[in-house]
Amino acid sequence: MSPQEDNRVPPGTGATTPPTRRQARQSDRKDEVRTEKAAETADGALPPPAAAAPEPETASQTLLQRIMTGNALVAFLSVVLSLILGGLLIAVTDPAVGRASSYFFTRPQDTLGAAWSAASNAYIALFQGSVINVRGTSFTSVIYPLTQTLTVATPLICAGLGVALAFRAGLFNIGAQGQILIGATFAAWVGFTLHLPAGLHLLLVVLAGMVGGAIWAGLVGLLKARTGAHEVILTIMFNYIATNLVLYFLSTSAFQRPGSTNPISPQLDGTAVYPLLLGPAFRLHWGFVVAVVATVFVWWLLNRSTIGFELRAVGANASAARTAGISVSKGYILAMAIAGALAGLAGVAQVSGTEKVLTSGVAASFGFDAITVALLGRSSPWGTFAAGILFGAFRAGGVTMQASTGTSIDIVLVVQSLIVLFIAAPPLVRALFRLPVPGAVGKGSTTPRTPASTGAAA
Amino acid sequence: MKLELIGITKRFGSLVANDHIDLVVEPGQVHSLLGENGAGKSTLMNVLYGLYDPSEGEIRVDDEPVVFKGPADAMAAGIGMVHQHFMLVPVFTVAENVALGNETTKAGGLLNLARTRERIREISDQYGFAVDPDAVVEDLPVGVQQRVEIIKALVRDAEVLILDEPTAVLTPRETDELLGIMGQLTADGKSIVFISHKLREVKAVSDVITVIRRGKVVGTAEPSASTTELASLMVGRSVSLTLDKAPATPGEASFRVRDLVVQAANGQRVVDGLSFDVSQGEILAVAGVQGNGQTELTEAILGLQDHVSGSITLDGVELVGRSVKDIIRAGVGFVPEDRSVEGLVGSFTVAENLVLNRYDDAAFARGLSMSPAAIRKNAEEKIEEFDIRTQSASSAAGTLSGGNQQKVVMARELSRPLKLFIASQPTRGVDVGSIEFLHRRIVAERDGGTPVIIVSTELDEVLELADRIAVLYRGRFMGIVPGTVSRDVLGLMMAGMPADEALAQAHDVQGGDL
Fold first, then answer.
1. A323, B336: Cβ pair inside 8 Å?
2. In a domain, A186, yes or no
3. Second label for A7, Cα 20 to 30 Å away, from A157, A339, B394, B459?
4. What is the CATH superfamily name and number for domain B3-235?
5. Which structural domain, as residue segments, surrounds residue A185?
6. How far apart are alpha carbons B453 and B424 in whole angstroms?
7. Regarding the domain delimited by B255-331+417-510, which CATH topology (the fold level of the hierarchy) does it fall under?
8. What is the ipTM of this complex?
9. Quick check: B351 contacting A, CB < 8 Å?
10. Taking every annotated instance into account, which residue ranges of this chain make up the domain ABC transporter (chain B) (predicted)?
11. Cα B104 to Cα B112: distance, rounded to the nearest angstrom
12. Cβ of B325 under 8 Å from any chain A Cβ?
């Protein structure tokens, strides 16, 4: 630790930067070193408190906390930077650019022109594949890409909410992948085994998916609360177990199609799938509405309910929560169970929405992308919702991009990874854009009232 | 070495932390900087130590202007700093810590600690530090760790030593030892900048006292000035340092502890068979050096400890074995010893912290749904009543000063009907102005008929508040004595002498001086 550098950063609040959450984080961070070196004011509003030496675990948790709840501007700029770098990568790997660069010193404009057109064409294709197809002949074909984006975003949002909610309770839930798989398995089994009237059947399918995910994640919460095992290790291992468990199920007759030994389940009943939202021309289904409802619910849960108050208190300061009579063990179990239920919804969106069968690949990589989505959304419900849609757009648009310009869809993966990289390194983004260090700006005496953290979290 | 600060100004944006501060430290002097928390003392010292660039002004060493780009420059110029929180690597030995950042190596890049050990022995002998260069730092008592910090500075030939709140972590005896060491150092021609808000120590040790308030020098004082004068200068208004408190009128002994034993995870009995009563309308102070079972005792009462046997009853109801929530609901108000760790959630708003253990009360929540309006209204009332200085009820509690954070915790605990009030270190790190206020609130709670337990390592506080004093030593009470007992008796009891012996000995030595 370099006390010198850390101490050079005075805490305080930006004159024009109201979010109190940021100040709080800043002060959390400074607790690692020594807060009292900070600017001292006479009006008693500052500086942040001195804190005792942190427990060993606190340092890493504070770092995670900083990464998971970073500021919105940094998140936005990270996306911009990643797109720029992605564009460079597209240009460099483009064959036309390669040909033009062989005579770069004679006619450099050829290389630059080729690079520009490669990158811009790829991104135009990405946009057209994810938002609006301007060359579409009918209204349906114009907005089709947007509905594709929302369809792909649905599981991302649900699972992302799970990761975000667990994080707010201080748990780094890497296990969305496994929770989606188990949720999907439960949902699918109810979907193709039971034959029930429309409405009731779908309701049961949704509930089964949520219960599956909740059990899978709740077990992690239980183990952590009872034995102190670390949730990161637990969730990673539970992912492996879930993957292989689903493979095993698909090798049993209960999950296979009659007369077949392929690892694929029977089709779900028509009564067990989400109805299409915009008619047969689009793949968008009612699962998206469920995702919106889930977002509203998580917002309410975190910011307006006593359960959310408990979970946030446990996540932000478990010792203080315990001293205030809040059960930390119960908080861990509950947070994981709710997170799992949300991931389970993502599983339902897959089996009842798009795939309509259970396979071992039903979760694709949604569970891992969900971590990125929650990260980009700063663990807030609506941030996660927006990030989910952005990543949905990347996935939906990437396909079009590859088809129409030959740019590899892997470039989307690179951009996604770069986003995470930049979000995890806010000082880099700030340095590149010459943003002030948070708190370096002095505290204005006329600073407007800051929004409550309850509100700011949304 | 003569050190001068001329017109030092440090701004953070629009905030002026230091406003044209002039300071001259003559060789062989102890120059005290007195000021409340947040007055700008630490900022000034960080400027001097090269951690901050001054916005204006200059630093002169022996009349030569100098610019410090970092602590390395300051150290090279002969300035050493002992931080309030030590900058030591706990698992390293003393010699390794002292060498750190200044290592000499043998051939092949091997560390050469022999020279460092020798220097440590020299310095240790010269000043009577009694520090073993091969001891591992984490095994040493706090007072000795502080000496290691001082040795670190002396090894680098520091002529000016900055001691930032050095006594905050020390026992009364260690404090006396430190004050002795400071005398030796100045006799040797070193000068010391002593930062503190404890008036008694400042008066005892200083040659010159400079008082800082709101970033400005508001005056200098002679060590002969009375504590009341110094306190008034520091706070900017007259403060009463002695608490006006009527004699206690104890009622029924409604809180009873019998044979309480708390075991640590390693099986050690950290609280070892305590039995005592606290009556309604009485303050029992638990004194003792930190780490003698105070934390475990208070946590056991609140239900935070796992291995508890014996009995704790409040109004005849057994508390042992019940959940923290039940005990809070039974009317136990609890101010934990470390507010930023156990008392507050730093990232939560002041309003949320004010209902941290009552968020699900009918007043603030209907079923699962909380009422932000009620929580906000409650916050505005408490901010007014307890004079909590915050930008708004929705500021994060972590941005408040220590004193105001403590007021948030006190406001939360005192704003419901209590059957028992426990406060650990109720004024630790709190400025003089707020101490007075917090003490009055505690006495008011007593006068309202609540049994009160105060745990404090500060003798001043214990003597000021207590109606009776229990001294804890290694998990046992050395006795429960009246609140009027002398400092010496308490000092002996804190060192492990039973009350009757301590009373007899203090009587012999001091002639019964109270």
1. yes
2. yes
3. B394
4. P-loop containing nucleotide triphosphate hydrolases (3.40.50.300)
5. 150-387
6. 8
7. Rossmann fold (3.40.50)
8. 0.76
9. yes
10. 3-239, 255-499
11. 5
12. yes
